[in-house]
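Reopening: Aldo/keto reductase still failing for me.
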Amino acid sequence: MAFTRFHPEATPTARIGLGLAAVGRPGYLNLGRADDLPADRTPEALRERSHQLLDAAFTQGVRYLDAARSYGRAEEFLADWLTSRADAAKEVVVGSKWGYTYTADWRVEADVHEVKDHSAATLDRQYAESTALLGDRLDLYQIHSVTPDSPALTDPAVHARLARLVEDGVTVGVSTSGPSQAEAIRAALEVTVAGEPLFTTVQATFNVLEPSAAPALAEAHEAGRTVIVKEALANGRLAGRAAPPELLRLAAEADTSPDAFALAAVLAQPWVGLVLSGAATVAQLTDNLAAARLTTDPARLTSLARLVERPESYWRTRAALPWR
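Support: Ran it again with your exact input. Result attached.
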């Protein structure tokens, strides 16, 4: 199923996708992982957890699934699930990303967990690795965490390879990160091959703490790109006990959880196509999906503005989160 044929209105919760970053490897920089995952984080244990989440997501109407080469064994776990659930496999859209190589060797304590490289050689290697696992189920392939200085925005060799994927029926997109996301998004919108825009989707971090990319994401939507929001819960900073008091208050007034309220605030943006849940438990996923049915009061959403952080401060805090 090509990404461009995916219609988020197909199910009530289809505007929320499931990202597998938190369960594809034993260590990640999300708060609360000690409580969320089993102490014995073997590949078999996380494969089982991934499949539980994928089953629950599909049953509750999720139709977009997001992985990456750097998410440990996430693509492998997803491929196994697609094989075992042929009925579901026909209905979901699968996205993955290239540009980071996982280097932690299934350890939580590692000097380096992933290495970034946006070269054509890395694209060739990682696309072969992704398709070896996912085959023709890979619908969307994105450049992972583009920044304004990324060579992938200007490298003709990378563009030519991605254009060939488009010819073969794969949708290509970009994801961004860092305090200059807006600049990276606008640069990506200008990339063309043979006069045609190369990137169909833009995935970016956007949440009530870090909304700085909003104007550029609105421009991407206006230009016909599908906007996918990642890290809507700020790596756990907007969920559960870690949520700011103001968010906890607003969620209580709306009779919902802080994560559902924070996700609903993102879904309320008119330019948002999909928002990713990074849930590590089925209970978290169910809470997240409640956002799709939550009616948000504009006055309450306005009051969230007091939580906004300067982009540089937000990204420094994120960079300082320990891998758990």
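The first helix runs from residue 33 to 36. If you still see a failure, please send the error message rather than a screenshot.
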